[in-house]
Amino acid sequence: MKTRFILINTSHAGNVGAAARAMKTMGFDDLVLVAPRWPNVLRREETIQRASGATDVLKNCRIVETLDEALDGMTHLCATAMTPRDFGPPTVTPREHFQMLLNQELISKERRGLEVENACNSGVAFLFGSERFGMRNEDVYRCHACLSIPSNPQFGSLNLAAALQVIAYDWRVALGAYPVQSATEVPTLADAAQVAGMLSHLEQSLVAIGFLDPQAPKKLMPRLNQLFNRAGVTQEEIHILRGMAKMMLKAAPAQPAMPQAAASP
């Protein structure tokens, strides 16, 4: 689904750069500025610095004079402002509205017999007003919904770029979130034979330090076996445990030699 973020009468250049960064983080790149305060806002140093590398979004960004130009090709409009007191579109949370919107899109495509992945002609636009005075009533009236981010009732003020980041994140999750990239390699779990070998080694060390009585072992080793099964030990952890068992055997007092039977005359 085509997605566009529209900033109306933006007064702070840094917010444009921060908005571009927020968009790129969530995989969006269609940014339109309507009559910003600074005509050269996309080239200003503060904008570029706050973009933190999202210069491709700034490069693709368009500056237009009217909201009509910014809305070209968009079919569903979402305001990000308090609903005017006299009347206006319904106020909803982003997640609630996005789920409803995607369900409607799916139903529409199924009725037309189209593939969901290949037949999306809809365009969703998210409108953000000026930092100084928000969105004008007449711009809000044009929208299908007014998105309200659940926040502290006593302090609900959000920076423009921060609000855009929240909206972009919820919309990305609704469309299909990116998979989490692990910072570490997936560990290899120890197999049953490795666990059994470690337990045998551990049992020897526990006997050597006097913790386990081999004449009355009770259920100590089966319980340890269950403990390690629940823990899902890795091969590296098996090596650590066997190293501990090895050092316990070295540190244990020497066991007295078993007396040998006297030889027959």
- Full CATH superfamily name of the largest domain: SPOUT methyltransferase, trefoil knot domain
Shape: elongated
Strand line-up of the largest beta sheet: 3-2-1-6-4-7-5
CATH topology (level 3) name of the largest domain: Alpha/beta knot
Fraction in beta strands: 5-15%
Q: What fraction, in percent, of the residue positions are helical?
A: 40-55%
β-strand number: 7
Top-tier CATH class of the largest domain: Alpha Beta
What integer is the average pLDDT?
A: 88
Class per helix and strand makeup: alpha/beta
Question: Distance between termini?
Answer: 99 Å
Q: Per CATH, which architecture of the largest domain?
A: 3-Layer(aba) Sandwich
Low-confidence stretches: 261-265
What composes the largest sheet?
7 strands, parallel
Features:
265 residues; alpha/beta; disordered C terminus; Helicase, Ruva Protein, domain 3; 44% helix
Structural notes for this entry:
This protein has 265 residues and is an alpha/beta fold. The chain has 10 helices and 7 strands. It has helices at 13-25, 45-51, 55-60, 67-70, 94-111, 137-141, 160-176, 192-208, 220-231, 235-251, and strands at 2-8, 31-34, 62-64, 76-79, 91-92, 123-128, 145-147.
Quick summary:
The protein is an alpha/beta fold and 265 residues long.
